[in-house]
Write a structure and sequence with these properties.
Rossmann fold, 186 residues, 19% strand, alpha/beta, 2 domains, 31% helix
Length: 186
């Protein structure tokens, strides 16, 4: 048994797609998932005895937040810029990331999401190979990569503040995404 949940909350899901995604069209992958795949009720509470999930592919690229923080400390990295994407990286991404890192005097965490994406996207194996290929073109000891096992639900721009909060757990100071850039408070 990987964990025990002591239930303290039960609530009905709020399926207001327009408020979450900025659209109610089921052609949007997040709306489609919300309407057709999410449950009507959810539970929450205290979790004990969790085990780290096992990954059998790209084993050296899966890092927990404590492991990442430790890696930053061992490398002597004080300020870290996280770049999050669910799409293959290209030269323009590299240029933007390097420019932001220079301007903020930060090291770089390439932190791509590799969960479910929208129909027609490259599978995550191909995307990870793209990330690995471009990572070689960053200066030595300036960047590292860790995969984020989370589905991209294509949230409306104003709702994306949850991602930087997740990244903040990693002790990352700057967050870059394809559509937004946020400076996080230390």
């Amino acid at each position: 048994m990987p964990a025990v949940l002591t239930v303290s909350d039960i609530w009905e899901a709020d399926k207001k797609a327009e408020a979450i995604y900025g659209t109610s069209s089921e052609l949007h992958p997040g709306v489609d998932y919300l309407i057709n795949n999410s449950h009507s009720h959810y539970i929450g509470g205290h979790i004990e005895g969790t085990e780290v999930a096992s990954h059998f592919d790209f084993e050296n690229l899966w890092s927990s937040p404590p492991k990442l923080r430790n890696s930053f400390k061992k490398r002597g990295w004080r300020d870290v810029l996280a770049f999050q994407t669910s799409q293959p990286m290209h030269k323009v991404h590299q240029h933007i990331i390097l420019k932001a890192a220079r301007e903020t005097q930060a090291h770089i965490l390439i932190h791509p999401t590799v969960g479910t994406t929208k129909a027609g996207d490259l599978d995550y194996y191909a995307r990870v190979h793209c990330y690995q290929a471009i990572e070689k073109y960053f200066p030595n000891n300036l960047a590292m990569m860790s995969l984020l096992p989370m589905a991209m639900r294509m949230l409306a721009l104003k709702k994306r503040y949850g991602m930087p909060l997740l990244i903040k757990i990693l002790v990352v100071h700057i967050f870059l995404s394809g559509q937004i850039t946020l400076r996080l408070l230390q």
